[in-house]
Amino acid sequence: MDLAELIPHSDEEKFLNVPYNDRWEPLRDIIVRLYMGKYAPGGKSMKISDVAEFMTLHYCFYAAETQYRTKFRKWGVRKRILTSEKEEVVNALGKRTHPGTSTSNVTLHQNDFEKSLDTKQLKRYIKDRIRHHTVETMAPGALSSWNLPYAAYTASFPEHPDPPSPLGTTGTTPNYLNIHSPEAMSPGRQAAGPSPNTQLVHQKAIQDRSSLFLQGRHKELLARCSKEDRIMLTNYLHDFYIYFFVTAKYWGRGPRVWTSEMISILTRSGIDLSGPPTPGSTMSGSSPPISRNRPHKSEAPTNLCRWSIHITDVEFDEMEDYSVSEHDGIDIHDPPSWPKWPGTESRNSLSESILESISASTFTVTPSQDLPISTQLVARSLRGDPSKMLLDVWKFAIMAGNLELLKQLSEDGPPSDIDKIHPFHLAASFLDGGNRCCLVIYLLSLHLDASFAFQHNTNDLGHTILDSLMISILRSHTNVEPWKVNANFNPPNRYPGEEKDICGRWDTDSPAVRTLFEHGFPRIPKEWKHPFCHTAAQAICHNAIAVLGSPLSPNINTLSGLFVRRCSHCGLELKLGPLHTLVVVAYCLARNGMQGESMFGALAILVCLLRLGADVSLSVTMSVEDIIGEAESGTCYHRDVKACDLAQAVPQSEINQWSKDCQTGWSCIIGTLDLAKAGKIKKKLESERHCEDLDLSEWVNQSPEEEVEEPPEIGSEKTRCILETTFNGAHSEWLKLPCGNPELGLLWATIQVELLTYRRVEDGAPWVSENFSMDALKYWLTGESDSFCTPLVERKMVKEYSPCGWFFRSADFSCPIAEEVCEDHFMNMDVYDRTSYIEKPDFVGIWEEYVLDETMR
Asked: What is the Cα–Cα distance from 219 to 674, expressed in whole angstroms?
C-alpha cells in the first residue's frame, strides 16, 4: 500500500476549520485506514504510535495514544481476529476446493473498511486447535441414521424449507467475510497445489465436521459441506447404512465378510428403471434440481404378500461349514440357500467386523481420502469406546429382524442406554409380518427389563408403542401424507420404516427399493401398496398382544401422539385415545386406502384392542372437524367425544363415496363399538335368539359397566369363561384381561381363525375368505340378523373357545396356532416359497415370569 495516497493536499482535507474535539469523525476514515492497512515499512501494519505521529505531522492533529485506543474501542476497530471469526474463516474456506484458493484471498469487512486477514494469527490458531483436538465419543445412533441416498434425501425436504434445511442457507458465509475468487489461470498453466495455510484450514475443517458427525449433529454437518461434498458424504454414509443392514440381517449365515461388490450384486441386480438415474444419486456426480412429480417407471414388487406361520418345536438343520474367500459357489442372489456358520464363527463380534470395514472402507467405492470427514477419527472414536457402537448393532439387529443375532447380543445384556433407540417402537416401525411376525418384540420382552415397555411407552416424538403399530398400517396401506399424521415427520416427509414392507414383499436391501431411492424417491409409491392384508393384521394383533397383554404392560388407554391438533382459537392441545386413533386409521383406509380395501384388518385390530382392555367409554377433548372436516380458524370446535361418536360423525355423504366393501366394513366397526359400549346387540327383530350353540342371554344382557354384586351361578357363561381361562391366566389375579361379553368373544374367535387360516395366494382372489362374511357380520351387529351367519359359525369350523373369545385349550391362549383353533384343516397357506415357519412365542410364560420376579422382589 502507498502511504502517499493518505497525505492531504490542502488544508480543507485536514479539517483545520473544525473544532478539535469534532475532528475525530471527519478524520476517522484516514485514521482507521492507517491503523488497519499495510502502510508501515515492509508491508506491515502501523502501530498506534506510528498513526499518532503521522496524523501530527501531516494533519496537524495532536492526540495521545490512549485517546486513539479509546476511539478504536468506540468505533469497534481491532486488528485481532475473534475466535468466532477464525472459525467462520475455516468453515468457509473448508468448503472450497478450487485450485488457487488461499487464506490470502480473505478479507473482513469492518466498519466500512475491508481489512486483510492476518494469516499468521490464523495459522497459529489452527495449529493449536489441531494439536489439542479431542476425538469425540460417538453419540447413539450416529451410524444408523443415513437410510437415504442424497437424491432421495433432498427430495424428502420441502422445496422451500422453513426453517432452513441442511440443504438450504444454514451454512452460508457471513456478510462480514469476503473470499475473493482466485485469479484465472492462463491456458496451459498448471494449477498450483493448496498452500500450507490452506492445507491447515482443510485439516481443521475435516476435524470439525468429523466431530459434528460423531456428536450426531448431522444437519450442521451437511451445512458445513459444499454441495459436492454433501452428495459424496450422504451417499458414502448411505452405502455404510446398507452395508451395516445387510451384515446384520445375514449375520450367522452366508458370507462372513461383505464387500462393496457383493453388496452391489445383492442390492442392485434385477431391477431397471427406464431412463438415466436422477443426477445426484450414487450413480452420477452432480445434482441439479430433482423433479419430484415425475412418475416413476420402476417395476413394482409383486402384489402378493408373504406370511408367517407359528409352529411348535421348530428345528433348524445344521449346515456344513464352508469358506467364502472366493464365494465358493454361494449364490449371492439366493439368501435362503446360504448355509449357517458354525457356532464358533457366529459368536464373533459384529461390532469388530463393522469397525474393520469403517477403517478400510471396504463397503464403498468412494475413496476415504476424498471425504469431508475423517474415517480415521471415526474409527479412533469407536476403538476408544466400542460400547457406543453396540447400540447401533442392536438397532440394526432389530431393524433387520435377525433373531439369532438378537439372542447372541442378549447374552451379554442390553446396553445401559438402549432406551435411547426406543427398541419396541423401532421393532413396531420395522414390522415384518411376512417373515418374523411378533418374534422381534417377543425377544425384546424376553431379554429387556420386565417393565421396560411400561417405563418407555412414549418416544421422542410423543408416540406410544401402539402408535408405532398404527403408523405401520398407515405407511403400508394408505397414501396419507406423514405430516398429516404427525407434524414432526416433516421434514423429512416420510414415515419411519418405509423401506421395509410389513408383509414381506420388500426390505431395505431389496434392489427395487434401493434403485427407487437412488432415483430420488424418498417414499414408497402408492402403486407398490395393497389393502390392509391378513399378514399385516395378524402381525399388528400379535405385537399389540405382546406389548399390551402383560401384567406389566403400558396403559392401553394412554392418549395417542398421532393426529394431535391444537385449537386455532384457544390454543388447547387436542389428543386422541387409542380407539379414537384406530377409528381415524380406519377412516384413512376407507378414504385413502388401496383398491380392494375390505376394512377387515381395521376391524380385527379394534376387537383385539377391546379384548386387551381398551376403554370404549373413554371420552377425549377433540375436534372432529379438525380430523375429518375443515375447521375454520377463530372458532373452538372441540368437545368431549367417544370413539363411537367419532365414527358416527363421519358424514354419510362422504361414506357413500367409498367402495361397497369399505361402507360395509365401516358399519361393522361402528356396530362393534356399539356392541362393546352397550354390552349387547340391539336387535331390530323381536326375537332375542342367539347363536344356537350358546345360551348367552344372562351374560349378554348385562352391561360391562355394571358390577355383579353376587357371584354368577355355577354353569353360567361368565363362570365358564373364568374357569376355562384361569388355567392360562387371562382373568386371574395377576393378568386381569377383561372378560367382556360373549358376542364380542364370538367375533374375536372368528377373527383369529380367519387370520390363521387364510391368505390371498393369487391375483384376483378376495382379500377376505369366503368363511368370514363381512356382510353377515354387518347384519348381525345392526340387529338385522339373529346370529352371525358366517360359514365359520354355521358350519361349526371353530374349536371351543371361552365366551370372551380366547382359545383356552391352546398352549398359549394369547397366540394360538391354526390347529388349536380349527376343527378341521382348511388353511390355504401351505405355499412353501411364500411362507416363513417360525417359533410360536410363549407370551403367557414370560408374563408369569414377570409376576414371579416381581413377587420375589
From this structure: 49
Q: Which 3 state secondary structure label does DSSP give 845?
A: helix
Cis peptide before 367 (omega within 30 of 0): no
Residues 668 and 681 sit within 8 Å (Cβ to Cβ): no
Place of cell 463380534: 349
Q: Pull the grid cell for residue 304.
A: 402378493
- Residue that is written with C-alpha cell 388447547 in the block: 572
Helix (H) or strand (E) holding 94, with range, is: helix 83-94
Count of all residues that appear for the chain in the document: 857
190-199 LR contacts (CB < 8 Å, sep 24+): 191/99, 191/100, 192/99, 192/100, 194/101, 194/102, 195/102, 195/103, 195/104, 197/102, 197/103, 197/119, 197/122, 197/123, 198/93, 198/101, 198/102, 198/103
Where does 614-763 have alpha helices with state H? 624-628, 643-648, 652-655, 660-678, 697-700, 717-726, 742-757
- E strands within 229-325? 307-311
Lookup: cell for 546: 405382546
Q: How large a percentage of the chain has pLDDT more than 90?
A: 52
Residues 329-346 as b/e (b if ≥16 CB within 10 A, e otherwise) read ebebeeeeebebbeeeeb
Task: List, for residues 559-611, the tens digit of each pLDDT value.
Answer: 999 999 988 888 899 999 999 999 999 999 999 999 999 999 999 999 999 99
Burial class (CB in 10 A: 0-12, 13-18, 19+), 171: buried
33 in Cβ contact with 75 (< 8 Å): no
- Host H or E run for residue 773: none
**Rounded to an integer, what distance in angstroms lies between the CA atom of residue 582 and that of residue 609?**
9
Q: Which residues pair with 464 in a beta bridge?
A: 458
Residue 855 has pLDDT above 80, yes or no: no
Cα separation, 214 vs 850, in Å, equals 38
pLDDT digits (tens, 9 = 90+) for 318-353: 333 333 333 445 788 888 889 988 865 555 688 888
CA distances to 255, 642, 772, 843 from 69, rounded to whole Å, are: 72, 74, 91, 79
Backbone angles phi, psi at 53, to 5 degrees: -65, -45
State the amino acid at position 658 in one-letter form.
W
Residues 611 and 738: beta-carbon distance below 8 Å: yes
**Residues 491-503 pLDDT 10s:** 788 999 999 999 9
Query: Would you give the DSSP letter of residue 798?
Result: B
What's the rounded Cα separation, in Å, for the pair 165 and 175? Answer: 20
DSSP label of 735: T
Q: Which is nearest to 802 in space by CA: 741, 735, 857, 732? A: 741
By the 8 A CB rule, do 504 and 492 touch? no
CA distance 59 to 33: 14
